[in-house]
Every structure is written in structure tokens, then in C-alpha cells.
Amino acid sequence: MTAASTTALLDLGAAHIAQTYKRTDFVLARGEGAYVYDTEGKRYTDWVAGIAVNALGYSDPGMIETIQKAATGLLHTSNLYYSEPAIRLAAAICEKSFADKVFFTNSGAEANEGALKFARKYHYERGDHARHEVVCFTNAFHGRTVGALSITPKEKYQKPFAPLMPGVVVATYNDLASAEAAISERTVAVILEPVQGEGGINPATNEFLQGLRRLCDERGALLIFDQVQCGMGRTGTLWSNEPSGVKPDIQCLAKALGGGMPIGAILLTDAVASAMHPGEHGSTYAGGPFITSVAGYVFDRISQPSFLAHVRETGDYLKERLTEINSPLVKEVRGRGLMVGLELSVDVSPIIEAGYDHGLLLVNAGPNVVRFVPPLIVEKQHVDELADKLTTILAAQA
Hints:
By secondary structure, the protein is of the alpha/beta class. Helices cover 38% and strands 18% of the residues. It folds into 2 domains: 3-60 and 305-397, Alpha-Beta Complex (Aspartate Aminotransferase, domain 1); 73-302, Aspartate Aminotransferase, domain 2, CATH 3.40.640.10.
């Protein structure tokens, strides 16, 4: 496609697509492995992966084969009927997690919304109608729908849409004393990301997660882990809370679960799942046979020990190379696996823009952090390329 054709396409998009995102001035057309190409043929190494979604990269042969096969069968049945792919995916997730039951959704925000309903119904079913508060944490991000937005305590996101869901108590992330003051006999649930994504790539300490589990047990609240971004192998273990040894009562998934296809899931203990009865929650599209066929393939690939070992090894190398960048702008490198943040002393928007010129897709996590959430199949050669280009970009910005 010519530059003129791309410009015409961009104009058409600006005219007809709601402008709720600040989009680039190029149009992506195809991908292969860890690379994507725009309509004019320029190649970019992808360090965004559709915001931690495209875990297997692009044009994965096994995923293509699974999609083609699934497309010849049922695409949709609704949840009035069982389908084999959904049953097998739910069983596989339960086998490799704390969960006894799974409720499928279409997105991460929808999973978090459902988790809030499930938690409230759990207490209602037990006759504990006085509980109505949800404890969340500073720098959290749980989604853009009203309930999820209510537990995303950032004024920029919340203010234009107030009033939001009542009964939200905000505690300080990684501060157990703050959490202890917030959790009470009125608390329905405590929700957090074991590694915060949008909020700046902030891992929770093992001690913090262990303390939250103890407080929830003591005070009768449920513990919800939002692993929409940090789950599914992203941090080098299948679930990002594994190093702490802590198990939640509810866990939310999405993003990488479909490898690029839209699917989410709410993982539940039997105690929580049994509080919900037919007709009390639902979704027309969620967990259909086509999407669960694809997600089943993705889940099997990611949960392999060798795959997770690759994420850990490459992630450690990524942090090592980023730490070696000699720039006065660099403040900290943090994260786990292939969920890494580079905190700078300046706004990262110009760095992201410069990345496009150098053939890099980058994304921020707040104003001062460059977030690296690439396809989980990236190799050390891609890391070396990134580090060299970032060194050049930062030198020009300093």
C-alpha cells in the first residue's frame, strides 16, 4: 500500500471510529513471530503484544491450525448448552490452579465485574447482608466498566463518570498496615493485581500477599486476584502469585488466555461458585466452542514447564540488558518474567514516539514508565536489539 493510501485509510478511520484512543499514524497489516508490519511494509519488533495479549506472537502455526479446524465446527451455541471445548478448557484451568469452577467471560473488565457480583452473592447467601465494601489499592487498574472503574482509584479515569459504585475503600499497595485498617466486618472482598500493570509494573511482595490472605481469613472477606494482565505465564510462572504460596478465593483472567481472541474467565472455589444459581449471572457469547477451542490450545502451550522456563530466562535477560543502559534518565528497572517496567525521570511519551522511528512498538504504564509486555516467544536477540535501540533513543532525549 502506498503512503497516500495509508493516509486515506487513516482519514477514514478518524472519521468513523470513536476516538477513545490516541492511535499511531501508521496502520498495522500483518505479523510474524515477534514482528508486525504496517501497510507500507515497515517492520516493528512488538514489545506491546496487543497489551499483553498476543502471547504466542503472530502467525503461530499451531494456533492457525486450531482456528481453521474450529471454524469448521460450531461457532456459537449460547450457554444454554454444553460444548466439549468449553468443558475441556475449564477442566484444564481447574487442574492447574486453585479453582474448582470456571465462569467464562468476553474480557478482563467483564471478569472483574463478575467477580464483584460473585463475592457479594457469596455473603448474601450466607445471610451476611451488612457487608457491602470492596477494598482495592492505590495504582490499581481493573477496567473501564462502571464496577471495575470504581475499584480503579485514579481521578483521571473516574471523575468524568461519577458517581460510581459506592462502598469502595482504597488502601495502599504493598502496605499491610494500610490494608489491615481498611479490611473490616463490612468488607465483601479484597481485590488486587499480584503484579500491577497499568499502575506502573509494581509486584506485590510475598509478605503482602500472605498478610492479605491472613486478614481476609480472620475477617471473613474473600480475596480476589486480578490476573488479567499478570497471569497466564506473563511473569514466568503460570500464575503470578505462585512465589507467595497464597491462593485466592476468586481469580480473574483474560488477555493472553485467547492469544489474541477475546475471552476471559473467573476462577472460583466451590464455596463461592455454589452461591450462584441459574439466572443470577450470564453472558450470551462467553465461552463459546470456537473461542474455547483456541484458548485451549493457547493454555496448553503456555502452561508447559519448558515454555515458562523460556519466559523466566528471557525475562531475566531483559531486565539485565535494561539495567545496563547507561542513561541519566533511568531510575529503576522492575518486574518479573516478561512483564517489566523501565521507570524514567521524564515523561515517556517522546520515547514511545521515537520507538516507532526505530522499528519498536512500545507502551507506557503511567507517565514515567515504559512497559515491556511482548509476545512470550521473544528471544534474546530481540532483547539485544531493543537495548541497543533504547540506548540510542535515550541518549537523544537526555
